[in-house]
Specification:
This protein has 304 residues and is of the alpha/beta class. It folds into two domains: 91 residues, Rossmann fold, CATH 3.40.50.10860; 123 residues, 3-Layer(aba) Sandwich (Rossmann fold). It contains ten helices and eleven strands. Helix 7 links the parallel strand 5 and strand 6. The structure holds NADP nicotinamide-adenine-dinucleotide phosphate. The site of NADP nicotinamide-adenine-dinucleotide phosphate has 25 residues, from helix 10.
Length: 304
């Protein structure tokens, strides 16, 4: 078997074209340009690359983005005060704090300062808790992007065995909850899982987000499985690669995401979608819900 490639760039482009239509409508109907504030603390080079990628995507769909940089030792009170000011800024509809934060910062305190209506990364407690009951305002971008990849390809989730490798608060856990919400049977594995292969081999859909090069080998994957590789690593020869052995597993899987060009572009796309949703919600809150032609809050959930 040779796996079909789930092309995140192509799917992302289709969704971004739809997002653009909503951005145009926002301006036409309400005179509003969606605004995203991106907060970068410290000098971590990987974080800077991530921030640059996110901000570069904004103008393509008509979002205005602003970068706010702080030194790594910025006082917590100053940071939180700054976020509170952005919460009240009518031109800022989404706020994102790039993670990870320098070690001495209290991540929870910083993230919880973002108002739930501007929490476009989906990390506010309300949005995190909402995943348990399937009622978030904003879903976290990476797992949201994975769901959109599967839906776009028409791949069923209900009743499937899903194995999630990685249990972080930003990828693995929300991903598992979103899969459960869609009636999958979900196993969640982490670094202390005793026999990883025992779980991965059961998976109809295998999602891997561990950040470990070559963690998943072909013998750990069921023939015909759908394999979603969230991981990002540098191979010894300097290439950007995921957590799964792509060459071997693409001979066995039915579908697979490449790295780069799989989940990464979808994460950025869902950030754009959440930001535009946030701007629409702002307009509806301040001017009434009937202002738009369509009654859409989670616009990226529409259609294929
Ligand atoms: P993280 O916070 O470091 O979490 C890694 C998870 O993997 C933890 O739950 C850890 O287990 C588990 N793990 C580590 N080694 C393992 C092993 N040998 N076997 C099984 N599980 C193992 O990382 P993250 O933020 O979730 O990110 C994971 C990867 O995805 C990274 O490569 C990151 O760069 C990438 N990523 C990509 C995107 C994208 O848009 N493409 C977005 C976010 C993250 P414990 O909980 O037991 O420690």
């Amino acid at each position: 078997m040779s796996a079909r490639i789930l092309d995140g760039r192509m799917i992302g482009r289709a969704i971004r074209n739809r997002i653009k239509v909503h951005v145009d409508e926002l301006f036409r109907v309400a005179g509003v340009i969606p605004g995203l504030a991106v907060i970068l603390i410290g000098e971590d080079p990987a974080s800077r690359v991530n921030v640059t990628n996110k901000m570069k995507a904004c103008p393509d769909v008509g979002i205005r983005s602003t970068l706010i940089e702080h030194a790594k030792d910025v006082p917590a009170e100053f940071l939180v005060e700054n976020i509170r000011r952005l919460n009240d800024d009518p031109a800022t509809h989404g706020i994102l704090v790039q993670l990870p934060l320098p070690p001495h910062h209290d991540v929870r305190a910083v993230l919880h300062a973002i108002s739930v209506e501007r929490d476009v990364d989906g990390f506010h407690l309300y949005n995190v808790g909402g995943l348990v009951v399937g009622d978030t305002i904003f879903s976290p971008c990476t797992p949201f992007g994975v769901m959109r990849i599967l839906d776009h390809a028409g791949l069923p989730i209900e009743g499937r065995n899903v194995t999630m490798v990685g249990a972080s608060a930003i990828v693995g856990k929300p991903m598992a909850l979103m899969m459960m919400q869609r009636d999958a049977t979900v196993a969640v594995c982490h670094a202390k899982t005793r026999d990883l292969a025992e779980y991965t081999i059961l998976a109809d859909v295998l999602v891997v987000a561990a950040g470990v090069l070559n963690l998943i080998l072909p013998q750990m994957v069921r023939t015909g499985a759908v394999v979603i590789d969230v991981g990002i690593n540098r191979s010894p020869d300097g290439r950007l690669v995921g957590d799964v052995n792509f060459e071997g597993i693409s001979q066995k899987a039915s579908y697979i995401t490449p790295v780069p060009g799989g989940v990464g572009p979808m994460t950025v796309t869902m950030l754009l979608a959440n930001t535009v949703s946030a701007a629409r919600r702002y307009v509806e809150r301040t001017r009434g819900p009937s202002i738009f032609l369509q009654d859409v809050t989670q616009l990226a959930l529409q259609g294929r």
